[in-house]
Every structure is written in structure tokens, then in C-alpha cells.
Amino acid sequence: MKLYYSPGACSLADHIALEWTGQPYEAVAASREVRKSPEFLALNPAGAVPVLEQDGWVLTQNTAILNYIAATSPEAGLAGDGTLRSRAEVDRWLAFVNSDMHPAFKPLFGTTAYLGDAAMIEKTKDAARTQLRTLFERVDAQLGKHDWIAGSTRSIADPYLYVVTRWARAQGIDLAGLGNLERHFRQMEADPGVQAALKQEGLA
Ligand SMILES: N[C@@H](CCC(=O)N[C@@H](CS)C(=O)NCC(=O)O)C(=O)O
User: Fold this and answer.
1) Going by C-beta distance under 8 Å and a sequence separation of 6 or more, which residues neighbour residue 114?
2) Over the stretch 21-71, which tens digit does the pLDDT of each residue have?
3) Which residue pairs, CB below 8 angstroms and at least 24 apart, start in 69-74?
4) What is the pLDDT, as a whole number, of residue 6?
5) Does ligand 1 come within 6 angstroms of the Cβ of 98?
6) What CATH fold (topology level) applies to the domain 2-76+195-200?
7) Residue range(s) of every CATH 1.20.1050.10 domain in the chain
């Protein structure tokens, strides 16, 4: 498998998941310039990472890629404990991070620059910070009940949560008092697979 990534982007979740499966893979950095190239756009017309390539077959969309990685290494147990409910919990939290948390960062990453009004743009950023605080409080409550975001064992949802927590810390989102989230972050940072992926992405 070949994973196209950008350092610290949401593709870091797939990178960590690949490390956790222990299967051989190749990680290819895709800079902004590369993502706009005709060769890359042929792989993903959105010009975005992650992109997974295997034997000429190309897969895009983070949740699809994470699920595929988990399915190719069932022994790693990254998609639940084998019960339907555990699988559903992984899907629930993967969806929460991918559909609710990840898009909430967009104004902070410049998507409202088109407004052309500094005060208005700042307002959208403030609203994003407030929304993200609420979402991280929900995560913190869940992590108060379980060691990992989807339950008692780690899953493909944990690396994705780790990625958005990194973003939140870098963006100065107020995470004060969210001790369970802090514990999850430290747990991830201490993990050899996480450290290996960070090192490969030049982030260690
Ligand atoms: N819906 C896509 C979103 C992917 C996405 O937003 N990727 C970002 C990095 S986190 C990206 O490559 N952005 C660069 C761009 O869109 O130009 C997915 O879930 O895979």
C-alpha cells in the first residue's frame, strides 16, 4: 500500500493506523505543489490527502481508507472487538471526528478568507473556537468512561482524534480542564506507532 500524506494533516491518522497494523507500506509526502499537479489530481480530483494506492487501485476519503486499513489487518483489532455494537461504536466516533470535528476547523484554516473583511473573518474563527470547545467537551466526557474513544480497545478512530487534538493545540483552542482528552493525547504520544509516523512526517 502507498499512502500519500501531508505532514500533520488528517492523513496522519491513516499513517498511524498503518503503523498499528504492522503491514508493510510506503508513505509519500504530497506537498501543496504536488497536490495541485495533474498526476496527483488524476488520483484525487479534490487535490487532497489522504490517498491510498494499492496495485493501481486508488482509494480516497479518510474514513474509507481507515476502514480499509483496519479490514486488511483484522488481527490488529482496529475496528472493534468483533461484536456489531463495538463496530458501530467505532463508526460512531469515526463519523464524529470526520464529519463534526474536522470540518469545524475550516474557518481556522482560512476557508472564510473570501469574506474579505478582517472583523467578519475573526468572527467566524471565534465561532469555530467555541464550537470546537463544545465538541472536545463531548469527547472528554466519552474518554472519562473509556480508555479509548470508541471503548476499551484502541481503534481507527483514535489516531483521527489525536490528529484533531494536535490541530486544536496548535490553534490555541481552549482545552482547559479536559483531563481525559489530555490523557488520551499523552497515551497516543507515548505509542511507538504514533512516534514512528510522526518521525516519518518530520514532526517528531
Ligand atoms: N473529505 C476528505 C477531506 C480531506 C481533507 O480535508 N484533506 C486536507 C488535509 S486534512 C487536504 O488535503 N487539504 C488540501 C486541499 O484541500 O487543498 C476526507 O475525509 O478525506
Assistant:
1) none
2) 999 999 999 999 999 999 999 999 999 999 999 999 999 999 999 999 999
3) 69/1, 69/14, 69/17, 69/18, 69/21, 69/156, 70/17, 70/21, 70/155, 70/156, 72/1, 72/21, 72/23, 73/21, 73/22, 73/23
4) 98
5) yes
6) Glutaredoxin (3.40.30)
7) 84-191
Q: Is the CB of 112 under 6 A from ligand 1?
A: no
- The protein residue whose alpha carbon is closest to atom 15 in ligand 1 is 48
Q: Where in the chain is CATH 3.40.30.10?
A: 2-76+195-200
Ligand 1 centroid to 51 CA: how many Å? 10
- C-alpha 62/C-alpha 196 separation (Å) is 20
CATH 3.40.1570.10: does it fit domain 84-191? no
